[in-house]
Amino acid sequence: MELILSIAIGVLAGSGVWLLLRPRTYQVIIGLSLISYSVNLFIFSMGRLRSNAPPVLAGQTGNIADYADPVPQALVLTAIVIGFATTALFLVVLLASRGLTGTDHVDGREQQ
Amino acid sequence: MTGWAHHLIIAPILLPLVAGALLLLYDERRQFLKGVVNLISTLAMLCVAVTLLRFADGSTTGVYQLGNWPAPFGIVLVLDRLTALMLVLTSVLAIASLMFSLARWHKVGAYFHTLFQLLLMGVNGAVLTGDLFNLFVFFEVMLAASYGLVLHGSGQQRVRAGLHYIAVNLSASFLFLIGVALIYGVTGTLNMADLAVRIPAVTGNDRLLLEAGAAVLGIAFLIKAGMWPLSFSLLNAYTVAAAPVAAIFAILSKVGIYVLLRLSPLFFGAEAGTSEGFGSKLLLIGGMATLTYGMIGVLASQAMARLAAYSVLVSSGTLLTAIGFSDTGVTGGALFYLVSSTLTVSAFFLLIELIERGQDPAAGILAVTAEAFGDEDEDEAEAEAGVALPGTLAILGVCFGGCGILLAGLPPLSGFIAKLAMMVALFNPAETATGVSTTAWVFTLLLILSGLSALLAMSRVGIRVFWAPIEAVVPRVLIVEVVPIVLLLVLTLALTVQGGPVMRYMEDTAHALRAPTQYIQDVLSAPRVPAPGEGGAQ
């Protein structure tokens, strides 16, 4: 389980960084989104993974070790919202840049 | 700090939030009303900040428990000397840049006033919070507002620089999150004071992970502060931003510096065991590299806005190096330098716009701006805005000279005292008795050289603008635009006149930062406020 998650995070982050370094604004924004997914998964995994545990603790008296850590879940929720909002904002700037410069190159002009 | 005054701690966050939301209710035709609301809110913020400064200087650390949960579990706001200092500095800059913008700049784009207030909210929140994740949230508030403001006035250059600025800062935010998550994963807490208690107990591989987390987190702050290889997007954003926006942005890089000042002694102070002083070598080397890069940039810049942007880097580099020394005396001097240099750079950004108004590049940008926003009635705007200033060139020249003296660090203004205080501390190291280190010599040399380069660059630009033209272009400048610049420069003069008390405050701040036991104790042992039902007054 740990291995699968780590590989998934790694692949997402790696593809994200590669896209971030590409010259087209659309690639940059997709790269940023991929990185944000990987970061969100990473935050989530900091609450420790647990396999074969019951999702609903009914009828058991409260043993704190049976519960998942709620803080990373709260953090990841906040991070998702903020990441979503800033990505939307970036999309607007991207469109403005496309409109003003007539190209989708990140520097606002095609390379010669 | 008891009773109602206790609630003042949260006022610097609530006030701009409410004002910013209120401003959204009015559309762009009510610019005058919006300006008034914005100004009132900012003035009120200054009053609150000054009151908080007096509290912070006298009593112990003020702790405000949100939701009335005690510190390691709930989120707290913490007010100490450094926080209060940053609050006052922010509100002073805000008033200056707001007054300046009211003459004309606030009309060249939508939602200027709302974004402005939200930016202030983000900065205030970031310096007040005592919790790492909340720091992230307030950083995002601040950055989101700054994304809007950097595009204020539109135009191709701003959009292009804004695109880079946003992409870099979004990536930095992800690094911030990774760092926070790693630190939480190892220690199980996000409260800064609680972290300081738990870090010494971390051992083995966990310590490696913790240091990795701190390093990733540090990179995020260094991007904000503009350390050398990470500062290129910052330079362009500062250069092309509208003048009042650039002036208030002077505080943004200082928020990165603030976090480093706060966290490095707290997390990696004397009690941190093997991690003591973690990262300070990097700060030393990176700071000096930034200082050198900024210095060369200052010498090489032809355009004044570029010169000012490089001055921001010089100031950041100086501060980063000073933090890297991990010495109480140097930190005290650095705090004085922080205030002085921020005021200077801010005044300089405002001044540049006035000087360049008559000349081609700035006029070009303004024209593009007007075209993009459909603002064709510039003549009308000039007619209604207020009284033009007599003797414009003389006053602008004096202000320019003041900025030059401040940037170069010459007496009698505060730039000199700040640099002197740092150098005195460098040559009298309090914490080690091993004499003056080589690094201290190099830093001193760089400090003097950076002053010299600023002096050279400023005289060159000054001669070109004020003396060389045969037919001097006299820009049309309103009194309301000069007042904020004069205000900022007079403040630096006041810092000199009141040098003793101010320096005393800075040294107390530095002592509290370097020995954070009191801070930790105050945050963790702050009592809950009894609920009305539980009896007993607050």
From TrEMBL, chain A:
Pfam families xref list: Oxidored_q2
Subcellular location, principal: membrane
GO CC field: plasma membrane
Keywords from the UniProt entry: Cell membrane, Membrane, Transmembrane, Transmembrane helix
Classification via InterPro entries: CPA3_antiporter_subunitC, NUOK/Mnh_C1-like
Keyword Metal-binding (UniProt): no
Membrane topology according to the record: Multi-pass membrane protein
TM helices/strands, residue ranges: 6-21, 28-47, 74-96
Compartment annotation: Cell membrane
Protein family per UniProt: Belongs to the CPA3 antiporters (TC 2.A.63) subunit C family.
Name assigned to this protein: Multisubunit potassium/proton antiporter PhaC subunit
From TrEMBL, chain B:
Cellular component terms (Gene Ontology): plasma membrane
Membrane topology, record value: Multi-pass membrane protein
Keyword Cell membrane part of the UniProt annotation: yes
Superkingdom of origin organism: Bacteria
Transmembrane domains' residue ranges: 6-25, 32-53, 73-96, 108-127, 133-151, 163-187, 207-223, 235-261, 281-300, 307-326, 332-352, 393-418, 438-457, 478-497
Subcellular location: Cell membrane; Membrane
Main location: membrane
Pfam families linked to this entry: Proton_antipo_M
Domain NADH:quinone oxidoreductase/Mrp antiporter transmembrane as annotated: residue spans: 130-429
Annotated family: Belongs to the CPA3 antiporters (TC 2.A.63) subunit D family.
Record protein name field: Multisubunit potassium/proton antiporter PhaD subunit
Organism: Pseudaminobacter salicylatoxidans
